[in-house]
Amino acid sequence: MAVLKGALIGCGFFAVNQMHGWRDAEGARIVAICDRDPARLRAVGAEFGITRRYTSAEDLFADGGFDFVDIATTVRSHRPLVEMAARNGIPTICQKPIAPTMEDAKAMVAACAAAGVPLMVHENFRWQSPIRAAKAVTDSGAIGEVFWGRVSFRSAYDVYSGQPYLATGKRFIIEDLGIHALDIARCLFGDATSVTARTRRVNPNIVGEDVATMMLDHRGGITSIVDCSYATRLPVEPFPETLLEVDGSKGTLRLSQGYRLSVHSREGTEVTDVEPRLLPWASPPWHNIQESVSLIQQHWIDCLRSGREPDTSGRDNLKTFALVEASYRSAAKGRTVSVEEFL
Ligand code: NAD
Ligand code: 89V
């Protein structure tokens, strides 16, 4: 089968992982890159041997010659770039968060649907292998009917040095990190109908909230807690591990720090090491996230080839983004917010 040709827009901090992922991917390769910053464009072009380089996305699309585009820019540019891709009939991957507002997110999904082009949001945390291992257990019925869960990410890792914009936005942890945890909650426990959230800022040197706690009511009756913090100093820094607690009618599952998956049922307790592979280009502690980049990219290739909708399609991701919006509204108003208010 012919190798799919891709173009990548945005050669910043995280895009380097995506470029590594594409280099290893089976069935796709990047043929052109774009960044409005010539220095970043040059650096990524040189590292990955890409000679077709553009400082303007308009010029990139005008020249064409690729089957899909991977948008790895920050959130403000997502809508114009996705709409540009739709106008050009190019299947599109867009980094999370899909957009700054629900109105923008819906417009992007509608533009791609109207143009008949697939849109996938690069929502990679549900593709982390420890999360997938946990999902395989809950899906197997080993712990019975799930009635309660917790998705937790608590750290004091300095994310601001690699991503300085995280310190300056009015919104921070729910929009940037909580969005991943909320998506994992949807993936494990089903769609949510309402959210009750509390936020606070502990670090005085940033603008947005760095601590958030959300309680979700899921459609099937499960209650979950999604909690995240970048102000939590622990004896051993767990970044970037997402920890899980799931209680079912026949047992329990715990994904604990150090990638230990423990499943307790009537048959006994089984503890498995589910640490992700250290890919040749990966660097701990980021290897967990880095592996998930490769996995979601392979999923995109498979979906594009088979005409299947990706798990985290634009359409699906509206439900995750609605949880972000509902969480901010709940925290601001001090009341439970229905997710329907945003969909
Ligand atoms: P960054 O600021 O380091 O890089 C963004 C790059 O995009 C910059 O080089 C900038 O010049 C370029 N750019 C912006 N607008 C452009 C435009 N219109 N045309 C061409 N180039 C443009 O940001 P980052 O930290 O790499 O984050 C990028 C995205 O990735 C964000 O949406 C962020 O939330 C997301 N991210 C995701 C993960 C994950 O695990 N999924 C991890 C980190 C960051
Ligand atoms: O995954 C992310 O979106 C990153 C980080 C893990 C630092 O929050 O921004």
Summary of the model, kept short:
The chain is α/β, with parallel strands linked by helices and 343 residues long. It has helices at 15-24, 38-48, 57-63, 78-87, 102-115, 129-140, 173-189, 287-306, 314-333; strands spanning 4-9, 28-34, 52-54, 68-71, 92-95, 119-122, 146-154, 192-200, 211-218, 223-229, 243-248, 251-256, 260-265, 268-273, 337-338. Strands 14-13-12-11-7-10-9-8-15 form a nine-stranded mixed beta sheet. A six-stranded parallel beta sheet has the order 3-2-1-4-5-6, sandwiched between helices.
Bound molecules: nicotinamide-adenine-dinucleotide, (2S)-2,3-dihydroxy-3-methylbutanoic acid
Which quaternary structure do these chains form? single chain
Report the span from N to C terminus.
39 Å
Care to count the β-strands? 15
